[in-house]
Amino acid sequence: MSNVNEYNWDKLLKIKTSGRDDTKADQYCYPYEPTPYCVLERLANSGYIKKNNCVIDYGCGKGRVDFFLSYQTRCKSVGIEYDERVYKDACNNQDTAVSGSRTEFLLQKAETYSLEKQEDRMFFFNPFSIEILRNVIARIVQSYYAEPRQMLLFFYYPSDEYIAYLMTVDELTFVDEIECMDLFEGNNKRERIMIFEIGNE
């Protein structure tokens, strides 16, 4: 993965999202680590996210996913972040970002977030433990039953624990996988985006 690519995208989008942050990480909420831009490029080019979609980025950190996808696909995006310090970084980025007007950030725990009916795409880069994920999925399913619509859930670099759980949720159907292994050294099988669907069009 090229650091130049990371720097160039941050510069183009007029944001600062690089670097890892373990400050508030614990057994339930994992460290801030931005999704590599090369992975986001694959997702943006997949056709699964379009202008009329709204993406929820769970554990959004400094907002990279939100700014990039809003810029590339013209979608709207909402970042959910529980760490106040990192949330402030996202808000500061929003002030300068070229796609800032199509993004929104909320300081909130993911498991307490109630989805709006227009929100139909969800992104996860291992933001939290399986316990929190269960509660988040329950809220997503609840939102689907309240307002039936096609919802797609994107899981980048999913753990075996995540996959095993997701396969047991009746409402979820595994629909596709975006391979990202070739973007990095080491042939890591976790370098992929698994896509699950609730409902269909």
Question: Main traits of this protein?
Answer:
seven-stranded mixed sheet; globular; 201 residues; alpha/beta
Give a description of the structure.
It is a single chain. With 201 residues, the chain is an alpha/beta fold. The protein has helices spanning 3-13, 37-44, 64-73, 84-96, 130-146, 160-166, and strands spanning 54-58, 76-81, 103-107, 121-124, 151-156, 173-179, 192-198. Helix 2 runs parallel beside helix 3 (64-73). The protein is globular.
The ordered string of helix (H) and strand (E) elements is: HHEHEHEEHEHEE
Integer average pLDDT: 92
Instruction: Count the beta strands.
Output: 7
H/I helix tally: 6
Task: Name the beta content range.
Answer: 15-25%
Query: Order of strands across the widest beta sheet?
Result: 3-2-1-4-5-7-6
Parts with pLDDT < 50 across at least 5 consecutive residues: none
Class of secondary structure makeup: alpha/beta
Q: N- to C-terminal separation?
A: 36 Å
Helix content: 25-40%
Q: Outline the biggest β-sheet.
A: 7 strands, mixed
Shape: globular
What is the rounded Rg? Answer: 16 Å
